[in-house]
Fold:
Amino acid sequence: MTLRESARPGRLPGSVPEIWGRIPPRNKNFTGREELLDKLRAGIVDQVTAVVPHALHGLGGVGKTQMAVEYAWRYLADYELVWWIPADQSVLVRSTLAALAPNLGLPPATTTGVEDAANAVLDALRRGEPYSRWLLIFDNADQPEDINDVVPRGPGHVLITSRNHRWEGVVDTVAVDVFSREESVQFLKKRVPRGINVDDADRLADSLGDLPLALEQAGALQAETGMSVPQYLRLLKDRTSQLLAEGKPTEYPVSMTAAWALSVASLGNKMPEAVDLLRCCAFFGPEPIPRDVFAVIPPGLGQPLSDLLGDPIRLARAIGELGRYALARIDTASRTIQVHRLIQALVRDELAPAEQERIRDQAHQLLVAAAPEDTEDTQNWRRYSDLLGHIGPSAVAQSHDTAVRKFALDIVRYLYNFGDYSSARNLVENFLDQWMADSGEGDLEILVGRRHLGNILRSLGEYSAAYEVNRAALKKSEEMGGGDTELTLQLVNSVGADLRARGDFLSAREHDETSLRRHQGDLGDTHSSTLRVMHNLALDYGLNSDYPRAREFHEAAYLGLRQGGWGVGRVGVLNALSGLARAVRLCGDYAEACDLGEEAYAYGVEELGAEHPGTLYAAKDLSIAWRRLGEFERSLELALEVHARYVRLFGLNHPDTLAAAMCLANIQRTVGEKEAALELAADTVRRYPRLYGAEHPYNHGCAGNLALLRRVFGDVQAARELNEKSLEGLEVKLGRDHHYSLTVATNLASDLAALGEFEEACRLGQDTTTRLRAVLGETHPMTLACAANLSADLIQIGEEEESAELLKKTMEAYAVTLGPEHPDAVVAAEHRHLDCDFDPPPI
Structure:
């Protein structure tokens, strides 16, 4: 939300930030701190400043966050962008940063993933584009090393609040002490509207140690009850003596504990159910709790909380009372309830262990009831994000309840779909460690968690680890529930993806053919899971050079998925459509592939954004299709754009970045940018084995592309040796009658011809042409290219008549398929050799 939507009256347009995000409401009772605010304003010119507690008062409650809130409101006219980031949980930092992306003209995290969106935001802030006057506030950042990599250094300002004095050695700091006595008195006179004299305010401040949070509690209580200061001080003295006699608390200021206890006792006398609500809120996180969490009454919630939630009038009053007694901050604009972490701790510590467990279980039940069911639906992701900050603080991992564990795994799945793979991995590994200690290996939720972990590892490029995790989970699932449970089928599907990633294309196809039959038998032909298996099987057929069947299955999957329904989202539809476009291209129908590819790319940009992984897949494939059709300029422009996005979003070593790099190198070679193509291809070939392993087909296919470039640069012998090695590797892994192997064989024949070994070139060319006709068909462009090359070589050994006949048939086929003006047809007609390259498809 921009501040323009809720600007204070009297402010001129343009004097408020364009972007105003998540800033807590201004405290109307904020008092004093002028010297500190001046010091903060002067220091923040150096870009990064931390607000820390004074060395003598290192606990919460001194007003660090309130200082940051006041600074944001007081100096808002100096900024174009102000953004608040809860920093006590690392998982929230990047997601909150990522939420800023659309405001900077960047694709949202729903389309690119949290990590990529956050990185794009940081990059834009560092460059000062589109805003150079920005302020980021990281609230409660305890460990400098946890957020140091997400604190942007640029033209804007960063403000950090923390309880940790270690920030003093990292950035400039402003230490916040308790109030001065003058500030305490001033605050109390403002906080108690019916009036309090200076002497009483002084006595009250002295008893409460001038701690701002304690003064807020005391002032709120007196404002609500009309309690006199002498009466309050008597009760405070009794409560403090009781606390000290019990030997507690050791962690919190006695004055704060006593003030809190008085407020709770008074509220309990006025409205006991409001105290029940406070106790429940104490077991959530310190981040804002969505008001809708209390809109549903889970079965078995227990009284009196269930009675309160069932009465909307009393619930609204209870929430209001928590705000009036300063026990919670109520934000009506965002419809949230927030309880200070110190108050939460005090509330929890006053409860017996058994009561703590009971109320924590209530909090878990409310979280479960508030969570949406379909993690695939992007419209539900905002709600999952709102609940995310309460997972760790509420100790969800420690619950033995099946529903709570399912909710925990739904959060993991949401993070995975959202693209925040690192947070998803950390969270699921934490759950698995805890559940293994509590329940042992045979727990069903542990198997589901392992399936999620396997998928996450594969998305991170850790293919071998993913395969081992999924294979072990599948074996255990079959032992526990038989072969036809939903979980078993899901794990079967996961293992198929792992086999593809490992380069075991034939095994993956056989595996997924069996998987499809099982899904059809158990779930039917139109179930979303069945359609996903059909899509995966289409990938398998493509990887095994059976492009007509790949086309058939991609089309069936797309037609089914575009109907929508539970568990089907835009990402799945896009993947199916771009898969169909790819299969059509691989069948040799380049014009149709371009039409479909343009449709897929436009759909991705419109529905998911230009930097969503699915959109980037479609864009890369469209660049290849344009190259095959002969539209080199468009192909190069898009390939450059896609590769740059991949490098920025995923880094140099991600499998999709490597595929985009090879796509770019191929078009660079095609248009004559030989030096750039060679440098990029050589670098990519060096990186591939680190990701896939030395014998993966993609390594050998890309090495064949590098060999082609070696020949272009005149090092024909090196090209021959590299192609021979690549062909040998591909034959071992895929056999000779595979598109990849035959592509390398075609180029190897060209190497032999360039070396003057025409007899050998013709023998290899004839064999390869025969095999290509059987594998891809007589009129496939790859078959025609090999035949055209063979025709040129036959002339060199005196077989002019055979050459002429072969060329005639080839040119007739070109006229029917690609047209006589296609670049391949032009090269073939001139008796020049055509070069054939390899583009790694998605796994």
Notes: The first helix runs from residue 34 to 43.
